[in-house]
Fold:
Amino acid sequence: EEQEIILWRLAAAPLAALQIVPLLGAKDANYAGLAAALTHRLGRRLAAVRATFEPERHALTALAALAWLRGVDLLAPAHWSARHAPKGNDSSFLPAASVPVRWYLPINEPTACQSLPVFALTPICHLPDLTFEERLAHFRVHLGERAKHLADDIAECARRFRFQQHAIERVAQTLERSPALDATQLRAACRTEAANEFGHLAQPVAPRFTLDELVLPPAQMQQIDEIRRAMSALTAVHYRWGTARAWNEGGLTVLFGGPPGTGKTMAAEALAHPQALGLPMYRIDLSQVVNKYIGETEKNLKRIFDAAERADCILFFDEADALFGKRTEVKDAHDRFANIEISYLLERMERFKGLAILATNRKKDLDEAFMRRLRYVIEFPLPGVPERERIWRGVFPSQVDVSSVDFRYLARQFPLSGGHIRSIAFNACLLSATHAGEARVAMPTVLIAVKRELDKLSRAASAELFGSYAPMLREVVA
Structure:
């Protein structure tokens, strides 16, 4: 209906001077197809300006005059609004204002129209994003017969990678050289094309751990596996069962709570690992996101979620209570704008289509409104003696000789979290490496590293705590 109104507007207004029709769409949208459809309905012809053509004033005027003489409308390159946005009255289009030519100008943001000549602008014509069904159809058409055996994988890519038409075409062109197309190649080509652009607001995380390496109680491990299976089932549930309409094609938001060092970050990396979900993971840098100036935090959050919209990924918010804190009673303007930030974050989180993981050791400080939007809340407890022994046995590299280390005693005697145990193991390796010889860590070295960690935590580390192993420490334990 909107495009029909735009057509009426263009048909009713005589083309007596410069006319600019903004086409608002996502990156790689089919602007040419929309412009061609509009010009066809108006009984005119369309010429697309080459991407290499620079919008200099005199060249632009000459091009407009030639188009007027030929009786054609012009489609500007998609990059003009971003790379050559006019500033104030210094508009590239102004010299051609008297030439009665209609320009179709692709834009990605409505603000791109702010510096264009107001007298020449028509209402914005929106180009909607492709639906799942449309993306699926484009994948099938461009991949052709050789991808028929990948029907389920193509459907999964059509949901996970929310590409526009030209991006799907590039993926298909990339895969033309593959002699035997398989699911791994298809996903790799899609991931390469997606390449999220977070800038300084987020850092990519290379997963170091698998789900098999996680040491958690059975209840927590079951919930982690449920998250993995739920993300894998989104395509079927949203588009075969029909939940996409009610849930806005939303993904999952989960909360990992618990004391420091209990495995929250490790669990997030394990979910991102290729053996689990195989999704790119990004750690959100809250120091860059949160800004003291009013409105800047929302802009940064918008950049993050907009960048993540193009393809499924894992957004990891560490120390999430700093950003997702409780809304307060409004006493001044700062309180009001802080509440606006949280409300905006709630709304964007609900529309996020990937997996958002919030990690915090202060769950009580989170805003209660987040709880309704969370699909899973997993409490990471301090490990018990059996879990600590498993962590001790698995924390040293396989090539390191630890045959003399009494893991059972360490697990029973020192109630430490997994993060602290990893720190102790690393320090023990560093201390052992100062001595020439094979890769070997002995019990006394581990005990020294344990004492240093306890000192760091301001815990008592007397000789009595180490029992029969106290003589091994000699002068280290006072």
